Amino acid sequence: MFPKYIFPRRHILQFGLGALMGTIALAGAKILPLNRWAQAVESLNRTFAVDEKLPLKDRSIAKGLIYGAAGRYGDLLNTQKLADCFVQECGMLVPEWELKWFAGEQPLRPGPHQFDFTRADGMVEFAQANGLFVRGHTLVWHLSLPDWFEGIVNSQNARRFLVKHIKTVVGHYAGQMHSWDVVNEAIELNHERDDNLRKTPWLELLGSNYIDLAFRTAAEADPHALLVYNDYGLEYDRDTDESKRKAVLKLLEHLKARGTPIHALGIQSHLQGDATDFNPDRLRRFLSDVASLGLKILITELDVNDQKLPVDIEVRDRIVAGVYEDYLNVVLDEPAVIAVLTWGLSDRYTWLSQFNPRSDNAPVRSLPFDDQFNRKLAWNAMARAFDNARNR
User: Hey, which of 116, 216, 309, 330 has its CA 20 to 30 A from 392?
Assistant: First the structure.
């Protein structure tokens, strides 16, 4: 029933069907004027034509880049077309939930002294069987911590828990991971600290050195993986984004100065279809500043939020595609950018449906493939951006 590139039988038997995103009637939605969107009018006039139908992974490889996407174990296991789509289009797979401390129905850390690698192992085996790189996401984050964490982890044992977690998880996959998001979202401008560090449980228990500790521990557990600091809110021409870019750059400079084994910055790139304040020059300067530190750059969680766009699918898809193409044309102009990863592959499985749904209840259309796994204009936009990118 399952081709050899799906999952080993022991994984198939352990999990039931994943939930599918429902299709909702497109009725009663309010349509705002097109000049509400920065790229709307221009995008409506683009053809988004591509010369060939080569998969995105082939187009990216031709330029020395990696294209991939995030996915979830149950979705890949139970949806044949999604698995086919990953194999055809992607050069890298990112387990969306399976390597976080606690996410989904079967957590990686079910107890203080327990690790359950079942789902993550299934994802890695799927990737390896089909020649895909794998990224680890994420080792240290202020979210997705299990319920038992608060009552057990304290200032006396926090270092031991952090080190054991990283050594165990990274060590389990040593030599198998392209890269790890070692620390995720450690900057928060509103937490009133001079260094702009987020007041996470790890910061409160271990102090600011927890970031350096995490990277050194990961490097010891797997000397060959690319180690990444990953964050969001870095893309637009806003005071908050500019301040965050400065804070992230300051953190990276600090880590490099002290010899922390950090290799790359991950820019999440959750873009907004209705944004009117994208400044290519400012973003290029930031990317250049990061590259000047000797760091690579990965676009790690790319998607386009269509929450405030018109309900009309043709109009909406053109705006979303324009955002993809314009953004990628800028970031791929920086040679230090080595990978582009969308946070999902098909509209059937996107976190935006749950966390940023449309007020008109229309299905979200934020990714390169629609909910039937057909290529959309967003796919064309990405293909064009890869075709036009400079060689690495």
Answer: 216
